[in-house]
Amino acid sequence: MTGNVTSLFRSTTAHSPSMASLTREDGDGAGPVDFCIPCNPYFPTPAMFDEMAARLREIVTYYPSSADTITAELCSLLQLPPQCVAMGNGSTELITWIDHLLVRESLAVPVPTFGRWTDQPMETGKRVDMFPLQESGGFALDLAQYADFIRTRGTRAVVVCNPNNPDGGYLHKHAVVQFMDAMADRDLVVIDESFLEFADAETEPSVVQEAMLRPNVVVLRSLGKNFGLHGIRFGYLVANPALAGRIRSMLPKWNLNSLAEHVVFMLKEHATEYAQSLQQVRRDRLEMASRLSELPGLTVYPSQGNFLFVRLPVGAEGTAVRDRLLTEHRILVRECGNKIGSSSRFLRLVVRPQVDVRRLVSGLEQVLYGTRRGAAVPELGTGTSYSSGTAAVDRLVGATNGAGMQVPAAPLPAPEAPRPLQQPAAVAQPMPAPQPLPVPQPLPQPLPAPQPVPAPQPVPVPQPAAAGLTPPGVPAQGGLTAAQVRGTNGLTPAPATGWPSAAGWPAAAG
């Protein structure tokens, strides 16, 4: 892929260009390896795609069934009452109607999170109260502090994404239920579970059953992300019959297309393959976190989604890394500088099969450090060695011993001013040259003029490191280092105890 790819990102209203536009730009009809769009790479299976392809003409020629018919089939699979479910043309359509119908004046949202939860209510003139997730705390959401924030602000509607996008932070079910009860006096509580199918922290992590019994709770679920079919655009919400019916009554009769209908009716025959695909993604997530955590200066945050949130090393700028990965290595990543509460030092990387991860790691090594460090993926194109912006990364890693603080040995060039006065002694003995420094200081005519030079020395002292956030080069609290990620369950750091036995892992899908 050649050309100025930055223009592709600037010309779109989304965070990244569509895969179709990138494929057209490439010229050879092959798009990049996608680490940007959080999609299940193992589902549908090749056999399912073959079946859809064989019936494509029939599928796209005729009208789909009504949304009620498709919803009833989905509910029979999920064992949910149809009167408590509303299906939409993607979760974004449902977010739009939730905002229009159920959010009156204000909405509380932890940030960073999915952009439509901040942008949609602002577009309709609502007040959006943003609760910042702290980098120093690993972007973990403290529900008690969030509840205090909501009450202090007097916010009427509340959103919680579990797992959160982009960091993958997870809240246990009992904590979410307690929070829902604490917010019983609010107009609306939305629990966005779009990525919950990929979580493995609990056997039954969803709160859909509890939502149906409460008057002000809506749970949002995604189908496109889980089924690996973003292009079909379908998702659903679960709430008590009154709330679900209010949303359902506003949706167009044919808001779901024939491809969505076909996939929903295929699912009961492919439940086993779907379950295997989720297990494979969870296993890949551990392996991918381990590989990325081995890169010097890169911080990987715990995730229960099908993506990983990473902080780039000091000196690396996200848009430059993103553009070079795309142009030189044909890899598309999500740079998070345009996400409220994040910055360009962060990337969200979708979990993909190990062969693609090796290619990603190889590309990051070349872009960030200019070396291959034994990566197994063959080099693509004729990319040049990276020696500009992130060359400082190598120097920092080498000079800090992993402590993240510069070694305070630099402020010794000041002696060079008195050197001319002691030239004879310096010529006779090169080694004791530093010793005469105290002697000449009284002799020179008021040459203490150089003394103002040491005065600026306190400025380089790493005071910025004590500015609340983590110092440069140090993994944020809650982030995973290479040692911590091994033996972890993806939620909390654990001692390096090795990986689980391969015999205990689920069989790979497909």
Automatic annotation (TrEMBL):
Q: Does the entry feature the keyword Nucleotide-binding, yes or no?
A: no
Recorded GO molecular functions are:
transaminase activity
Q: Which CDD domains match?
A: AAT_like (cd00609)
| UniProt KW Transferase keyword | yes
Which residues fall in a compositionally biased region of kind Low complexity?
419-430, 492-510
Q: Where is the composition biased (Pro residues)?
A: 431-463
- Which portions of the sequence form the region Disordered? 407-510
Q: Where does the secretion signal sit in this chain?
A: none
Aminotransferase class I/classII large domain residues: 62-362
Q: Which cofactor does it need?
A: pyridoxal 5'-phosphate
Q: Which UniProt keywords apply?
A: Aminotransferase, Pyridoxal phosphate, Transferase
| Name listed for the protein in its UniProt record | Histidinol-phosphate aminotransferase family protein
Protein source organism: Streptomyces actuosus
